[in-house]
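Loading example: each entry is read as two labelled lines plus one structure line.
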Amino acid sequence: MDNYKPLLETVEPEYINEMTARREPIEKAKKLTGALATPIISFGALAGTAYGQDSKLPGKIVDVLNFALTLEYLEDDFYRMGLNSSGLIPSGTRDVFGQISKHETAHVNLLRSVLGSRAVSKPQFDFTAGGAFGDVFRNYQTFLAVSQAFEDTGVRAYKGQAGNLRSNDMILTTALQIHSVEARHAAMVRRLRGETPWIVGDSRGTLPAATQPVYNGEGITTQGGANVAALPGSSSKIASQAFDEPLTKEQVMAIASLFIRRNS
Amino acid sequence: MDNTLKPETEPLNLEIDQMTSRRRFLKWSSAAALTAFAFGAIRPEILGANDAFLGLPIEPLAQGAVDLGKGDTGVLNYAYALEQLEAAFYTQVIATPYSGMNSEERVILTDIRDNEIAHREFFKVALGRKAIPSLQVNFTTINFNSRDSVLNTARTFEDTGTSAYNGAGQLLKNPEFLLIAGKIVSVEARHVATIRDLLQPMSAYFSGDDVTDPATGLDPARLPAQVLPLVAPYIRTPITGNRLPQPKR
């Protein structure tokens, strides 16, 4: 790390001498307690006055939300069909998939409510990916594999778009609130498959080779110019699993399009 | 039990050293006084005046309040503080495993410890001279011999951390920092889903209705002013965050 220039010192030099314990702000700390009860996001605010006026949303944000909506449509249909496929999901894990399905449906409804008339319509899906996962709704292991790929992709997709939502704090925050739920899903499904809940290197584990694009780029061990693998207590394995990596919209759509019917 | 975090390996910046020396004579034995100090109810000058009265050799506690700072620096120091707390907690969990910890749990908790240490060390090096010092933690309410106590504390820390990152994203100005925060928060969410699955296996609890809003499918997002009081009982060093950015609106 000898040549590493701390990230912050490159961008905020004016703050270098300000990171100290100070006395006068302590009085102001009383203000903290006054703000405690304020929830910063509520569904009412989201779907209602704040930006129920879909026509006012910038096109860039609409594009991102429609991209997210397409992925949520995909997941929502997938879990609904899985839960409706008799004999597919063992009784012992139905509660897990019921919960995931409930969230994906809620995400679809939430995004549609924000987008209003500008929401894209749902594509037709082919969850066999042209036959690659032909028994996806008959073989629980195949279902789990596709589920893991969808969830890990979803996490990377939202992460990759956060920067494009910065002009609207409420939408950015909402996207982050979905993002962490997708990560919970991903971790749980990975556990059901006997994988580590976190992604080690760029390994797809026991998933088929066709899913490798879901994991490409996850093996990064540097962050903000810092070689995390060389930090105290770290290693390449730790540095990769401790940080999830984004995918671009194009990378995500290359994955998702395998499950979207042409000319739909 | 020594809950002191890893010793500093680099010198702190000059102003922190000066402040520390000014505060060195301030030693308090009362956790209540510390808490009151942290939230501004007691002025440090008053405590200083009473120091001679306290007078006795006392376990060195906080060496003055640590202010997180402002702007992106403040937000990253806020994250650094939370990662220090989590890393210290899991370090203790692995150092003194609860009775009955099975091999799967040991592997998971070791991985989480490693991830939190990586987050902590990353923030330390990324903040450089702007990093807050190592914080002293207070785990006296945690029974490290109890699986229930450890896993529920882990759940609390991870759910809180996830909500903290979710709420802090909007406070960051630099998109590179926002992306890095996003890279970390999903790992925190993976942690908590796993911890929750250890507590209530194969159930909806990994993303339960108690945390993820069932109507919206959203995890919580909390602002620093909401998070700091939640973690204050576990951090001995008083922290102030009143110069942190505020959300627009």
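Confidence is low (pLDDT under 50) at residues 1-62 of chain B.
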